[in-house]
Structure formats: structure tokens, C-alpha cells
């Protein structure tokens, strides 16, 4: 896949944005320069069924306008149904190779990993990229586990140089550069973007830090 699309990977669902509208937040983040969006609809009050499908379709349309890949978290059937660009699964979300078979070779498949072994298995089973985390403390995911530290990014990047890595978990604008310098192609964030007052401006600032670290300038 095109690694540059992973640079600033925004993740959100309706439960991450207070009483704002997800499409408004997404549009501001797209204007600010996110390079991928993942719809992750989880937790109390999360949309389901037709409501979730309608939201996914709207997110997809908006992402298409900005030529930004639209990824669905967990729900492989929904991803296929709405024609998402890809799907992201965790270690508990089923057999990775089977998901690859189901979505075909064209869609992006991302897998959350927590060790070198996880990353190797994901790569062998057809993942296009791996998420590594949580790198730092996070309050955005229940049972996220203890931070794995940025060293794991470097280790996986060394062992699997061809596998794009996205760091996740507690990443802020200040920490983003470090994650990239350890060997990640990009940073994934919920709260740093979703909780910000001026989403567009904050996104633009984070994008600047990530771009700077990516080019090594
Ligand atoms: N997976 C590992 S940590 C995490 C997910 C989905 C939450 C990331 O959210 P934040 O707010 O950027 O720490
Ligand atoms: Mg999952």
C-alpha cells in the first residue's frame, strides 16, 4: 500500500466527540490534513444496524471527496457492504487470513499488534499495515493494556522493514515525531484530534510535526 496514506491516521466514532457531529469533526480533520480515517463505533450508545451503516456511507463519501482512505474498524461485513477502502481488526477479531480472503486483495487490511510475533503473523496473513500500541497511556480504549513503548516500533521496523507501521495510543503532537523517528510510517490518534477545540487547526499542526519528522528535516 501507499505508506504515505498512513501518516496521520484519525480514528473516531460518535462516542469520542462529545455532543458534536461526527461528520463535522471528520470534515474539519480532513481539511486539516488527515491521510486516513477509521470509523470505530464503540462503547455505550454506539450506533448499530442501519444507523451505523448510514453513518459509514456518509463518512465514506466525505473521505472520497478528500481522496482519503476510509477504513471500518472490526466489522468486516459492514466494510464490504458500504464499499470501504479497508478494514482494521484486532487480535481478537478472528483469523486474519480469513478476513483477507473475505475482503479480497484490493482492500486495505490493518491489524492491531502488541509484539514482534503478532506483527510477523499479521504480515504473513496478508496485512497491509500493523498498528502497534498502546505506545503511551490512553483513556480512549478500555482494556488497552500496559503501554508497549516506542521501542517496539523500532524492533518491528528492523525485523520487518517492508511492513508499514502505525503507532497508536496516547500520541500527542509533541510525541508524534518520536514515533515516526522510531520507524513508524504514521501515527493514529483519537483524542488528540477528536477532543480538540479547533479540530482543523490542531490537525494541521500535528500534520506539520509528522511531516517534519517523516522528511527528517
Ligand atoms: N488501540 C490502542 S490504543 C487506542 C486504540 C484504539 C486508543 C487510541 O486513542 P488515543 O486517544 O489517541 O490515545
Ligand atoms: Mg477490534
Automatic annotation (TrEMBL):
Record keywords: Magnesium, Metal-binding, Thiamine biosynthesis, Transferase
Any one Gene Ontology molecular-function term assigned to this protein's record: thiamine-phosphate diphosphorylase activity
Name of the protein this chain belongs to: Thiamine-phosphate synthase
Pfam family, one: TMP-TENI
Principal EC category: transferase
Name of encoding gene: thiE
Pathway linked to the protein: Cofactor biosynthesis; thiamine diphosphate biosynthesis; thiamine phosphate from 4-amino-2-methyl-5-diphosphomethylpyrimidine and 4-methyl-5-(2-phosphoethyl)-thiazole: step 1/1
Binding site for 2-[(2R,5Z)-2-carboxy-4-methylthiazol-5(2H)-ylidene]ethyl phosphate: 138-140, 170, 190-191
Residues bound to 4-amino-2-methyl-5-(diphosphooxymethyl)pyrimidine: 38-42, 73, 112, 141
The protein's Enzyme Commission number: 2.5.1.3
Annotated family: Belongs to the thiamine-phosphate synthase family.
Reactions accelerated catalytically: 2-[(2R,5Z)-2-carboxy-4-methylthiazol-5(2H)-ylidene]ethyl phosphate + 4-amino-2-methyl-5-(diphosphooxymethyl)pyrimidine + 2 H(+) = thiamine phosphate + CO2 + diphosphate; 2-(2-carboxy-4-methylthiazol-5-yl)ethyl phosphate + 4-amino-2-methyl-5-(diphosphooxymethyl)pyrimidine + 2 H(+) = thiamine phosphate + CO2 + diphosphate; 4-methyl-5-(2-phosphooxyethyl)-thiazole + 4-amino-2-methyl-5-(diphosphooxymethyl)pyrimidine + H(+) = thiamine phosphate + diphosphate
Gene Ontology cellular-component annotations: cytoplasm
Domain of life: Bacteria
Function, as annotated: Condenses 4-methyl-5-(beta-hydroxyethyl)thiazole monophosphate (THZ-P) and 2-methyl-4-amino-5-hydroxymethyl pyrimidine pyrophosphate (HMP-PP) to form thiamine monophosphate (TMP).
The keyword rRNA-binding is annotated on this UniProt entry: no
Binding sites annotated in the UniProt record for Mg(2+): 74, 93
Example GO biological process: thiamine biosynthetic process
Cofactor(s) of this protein: Mg(2+)
Bound cofactor: record note: Binds 1 Mg(2+) ion per subunit.
Statement: the UniProt record of this protein carries the keyword Transferase: yes
Domain Thiamine phosphate synthase/TenI: 8-193
Amino acid at each position: 500500500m501507499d505508506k504515505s496514506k498512513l501518516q496521520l491516521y484519525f480514528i473516531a466514532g460518535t462516542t469520542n466527540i462529545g455532543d458534536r457531529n461526527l461528520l463535522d469533526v471528520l470534515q474539519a480533520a480532513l481539511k486539516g490534513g488527515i491521510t486516513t480515517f477509521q470509523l470505530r463505533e464503540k462503547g455505550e450508545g454506539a450506533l448499530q444496524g442501519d444507523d451505523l451503516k448510514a453513518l459509514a456511507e456518509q463518512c465514506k463519501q466525505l473521505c472520497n471527496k478528500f481522496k482519503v482512505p476510509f477504513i471500518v474498524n472490526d466489522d468486516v461485513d459492514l466494510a464490504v457492504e458500504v464499499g470501504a477502502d479497508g478494514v482494521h481488526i484486532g487480535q481478537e477479531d478472528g483469523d486474519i487470513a480469513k478476513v483477507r480472503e473475505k475482503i479480497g486483495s484490493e482492500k486495505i487490511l490493518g491489524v492491531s499488534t502488541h509484539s514482534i510475533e503478532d506483527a510477523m503473523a499479521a504480515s504473513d496473513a496478508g496485512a497491509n499495515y500493523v498498528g502497534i500500541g498502546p505506545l503511551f497511556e490512553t483513556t480512549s480504549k478500555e482494556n488497552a493494556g500496559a503501554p508497549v513503548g516506542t521501542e517496539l516500533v523500532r524492533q518491528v521496523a528492523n525485523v520487518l522493514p517492508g511492513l508499514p507501521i502505525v503507532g497508536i495510543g496516547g500520541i500527542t503532537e509533541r510525541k508524534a515525531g518520536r514515533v515516526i523517528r522510531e520507524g513508524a510510517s504514521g501515527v493514529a490518534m483519537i483524542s488528540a484530534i477528536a477532543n480538540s477545540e479547533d479540530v482543523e487547526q490542531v490537525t494541521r499542526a500535528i500534520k506539520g510535526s509528522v511531516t517534519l519528522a517523516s522528511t527528517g528535516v
